[in-house]
Amino acid sequence: MITASVLIGLIAGLMIYWFYFKEDRFTFRVGQVEFDVENHSTASRSSIQDEVTHAYEAIMGAVKGDYDPASPISLEFYNQKDISFSTRDEVVLFKDNGHFLTVHELSHALLWGKEEQDDRGYWELEGLAIHLQTEYGDPVYPNYDVSPHAIMNVVKEEGMMIPLTKLCGTSMSRMLFQPSLESEGASRSLQWISYIESASFVSYLIEEYGMEEFEKVFNEKDSLQQMKEVYGKDAAELEEEWLAYIDQESYKLSEREQNKVPGLEKRRSYFGEIDERYIHLVGGWVL
Questions:
Q1: What pLDDT does 54 receive?
Q2: Which of 130, 208, 222, 278 is within CB 3.0–4.6 Å of 199 for a Cys-Cys bond?
Q3: What is the DSSP string of 114-144?
């Protein structure tokens, strides 16, 4: 015979299962894209639809060029913390700091470019995604709504800056943005620096020269040469301009902002373990 307390326990268990493990499938359209959603999270259908609609409209409203995104795009939402990722027609979102990286990952899918082009620069893809996430999305990795310029000043002061010739080149791109985890702390710190630096540099290019000019570099092969053709300056000249631009009082990281970036001090503790072949030597720039 089932007692009242057992029955209450069963009902509570079913409710927990329903809210945390249910799978909800639905479809909706925004603009020219149909989204097929698998919701494994506790977010409601309406909140997901509102968030995706906002992200789509912000991304497509920010860019100036013509893009031909896939349709349908598959979206999966999960409560747990893990690494979100995207392809041209699939976006898988996990929570970070209690939020989804919706703007970041959806920008990758919507602005994918030429379908079979796998050698695009990571710096421009990730830099633009973080720029858009910071402008229009929730506070998530890597800068948690703090200006990437402010965090970049910390990286620079620590002597951990990656030369633009390496960041925007192709020979080290995968090692910087998708490093091995042989030394997990140092590798993840190097990856974080790559993301922060890309975000700051891309934001600078957009703020100083405009989105339309940046998009002439975005999704193109040999971005170092493309930058020279578009901006009339090589990487060393642009680097000098960019560092001067962010070296102003308004871009100094405050104590309050430091507290908004989870794990900042822990990442800094691994800086000394990063191989010097990736960075400027402390005490002098090596271009």
A1: 98
A2: 130
A3: STT-----HHHHHHHHHHHHHHHS-S-TTTT
Q: In the predicted model, is pLDDT for residue 281 greater than 70?
A: no
Q: For 79-95, how does the pLDDT look when each residue is reduced to its tens digit (9 = 90+)?
A: 999 999 999 999 999 99
d(CA 285, CA 287): 6
What distance in Å separates the CA atoms of residue 268 and residue 193, rounded to the nearest whole number?
Answer: 10
Query: b/e string for 154-175 if b means 16 or more Cβ within 10 A?
Result: bbbeebbbbbbbbbbbeebbeb
Which tokens belong to 9?
Answer: 């326990």
Would the pTM count as exceeding 0.85? yes
Give tens-digit pLDDT for 222-252. Answer: 899 999 999 999 999 999 999 999 998 889 9
Token duo for residue 128: 């633009």
| CA separation for the pair 241, 94 (Å, rounded) | 37
Cα Dmax for the chain: 82
What are the helix and strand counts (H, E) for the chain? Answer: 13, 7
Alpha-carbon radius of gyration of the chain:
21
Report the 10 Å Cβ neighbour count for 258.
Answer: 14
